[in-house]
Specification:
- It is a single chain.
- By secondary structure, the protein is of the alpha+beta class.
- It folds into three domains: 1-36, no CATH class; 39-236, no CATH class; 244-294.
- It contains six helices and 14 strands.
- The protein has helices spanning 53-64, 73-76, 166-184, 241-260, 262-269, 271-294; strands spanning 4-8, 15-19, 24-26, 33-35, 43-47, 78-107, 113-131, 150-151, 189-216, 219-226, 232-238, 297-300, 307-309, 312-314.
- The strands form four sheets. Strands 5, 6, 7, 8, 9, 10, 11 and 12 form an eight-stranded mixed beta sheet that branches. It has a two-stranded antiparallel sheet with strand order 1-2.
- Strand 1 and strand 2 form a beta hairpin.
- The longest helix is centred in the C-terminal third of the chain and has 24 residues, at 271-294.
- The radius of gyration is 25 Å and the shape is flat.
Length: 327
């Protein structure tokens, strides 16, 4: 994805178009040459806020009505605090190259299996973004949107400063892009692989969000609204006991039926179909139980969720964002 930005010339104020990867911008009106990089040769840009407070509140009200949240949330919830903040994100664009060799196990015409050897060459453009500060447990780690009007970064913008280094971010970006290259191969059993990451551009993007805190029956929750698109990108909300009961009831019924029908399926369609029926039944029942167990709170975005490992339930916890660290 190639980005095109519009900045204001520092000399005459005219609009200057630059493309991702450009280090210099030439004003078409006064011909002033500007360098678009930070102190450590990292391009620093900020997206223009497009959503005002009223539209952010409207987005929150619409979000209250969606999903398996408490049915009266949109009526009972009271917004107690709303403010906007710019969060920094590393933006790394690169070309990914890879060679992947291996084989997949496929069925043959005799009812058995066979090895099908494959070799794939990958060439693809990738864009990786990652938050460049510790913003607490607000559920935003990566940017979902890279389209919008870019403005110069000024001191009066309420923002978090970047606390992670460019070098560490690039190392992490390389690792992630290499994993993406590997996933492109779609080869189950890999015997050889080699990946190359060719950097195109690296920048620090300051992106606006609205942070909204609200009260529901004496408990505090929050959500974040994208300041460019107006979409809710993360949040916590109370669940509804009725939805929990309906999900566990439906899941238990369907999952139990699939498990009980496995012997019949085996007689008509074979043992593999029976095993598949049992696995699907277990998955449905497990998913419904998970929602029943943790559905009292609905979370969206990059917020750590409870997960089951080794028979024990582990809960990852974070902490809330604080306005006192804004600059």
């Amino acid at each position: 994805m190639k980005l095109t930005f519009g900045l204001n010339c520092p000399s005459c104020g005219g609009r200057v178009e630059i493309s991702e990867g450009d280090e210099f911008a030439i004003c078409p009106f006064c011909h002033t040459v500007s360098r678009v990089v930070g102190d450590d040769d990292v391009k620093v840009l900020a997206y223009k806020m497009k959503i005002d407070e009223k539209r952010a509140r409207d987005s929150a009200r619409r979000w209250f009505k969606k999903g398996l949240k408490a049915r009266d949330l949109h009526k009972v919830a009271k917004i107690t605090e709303i403010y906007h903040v710019y969060l920094p994100f590393w933006n790394y664009s690169a070309i990914g190259l890879g060679i992947i060799c291996g084989y997949n196990i496929e069925s043959d015409n005799n009812g058995g299996t066979k090895k099908v050897y494959k070799e794939q060459q990958i060439r693809k453009d990738y864009t990786w973004t990652n938050i460049a500060c510790d913003a607490g447990d607000i559920g935003i780690k990566h940017l979902r949107n890279l389209k919008g009007e870019v403005i110069p970064l000024t001191e009066d913008l309420p923002k978090y400063e970047a606390t992670t280094s460019k070098d560490d971010a690039k190392v992490e970006g390389d690792k992630v892009i290499r994993k993406w290259i590997m996933s492109e191969g779609r080869i189950s059993n890999i015997t050889f692989h080699k990946e190359f990451v060719l950097p195109k551009s690296f920048s620090l993007l300051y992106y606006p969000f609205w942070i909204i805190r609200y009260d529901y029956k004496g408990k505090m929750y929050f959500l974040t609204v994208d300041g460019v698109t107006g979409k809710v990108v993360s949040g916590r909300a109370p669940g509804d006991p009725l939805w929990q009961s309906m999900v566990i009831g439906t899941g238990a019924t369907i999952g139990g039926a699939l498990l009980g029908l496995a012997p019949i399926v085996s007689g008509f369609a074979g043992q593999r179909a029976a095993i598949l029926s049992m696995l699907v039944g277990v998955v449905i029942f497990g998913a419904s139980y998970y929602f029943f167990r943790y559905g009292s709170e609905i979370v969206e975005g990059d917020i750590p969720k409870p997960y089951i490992f080794g028979g024990k339930v582990k809960i990852q916890r974070g902490y809330s964002i604080g306005k006192e660290v804004l600059r």
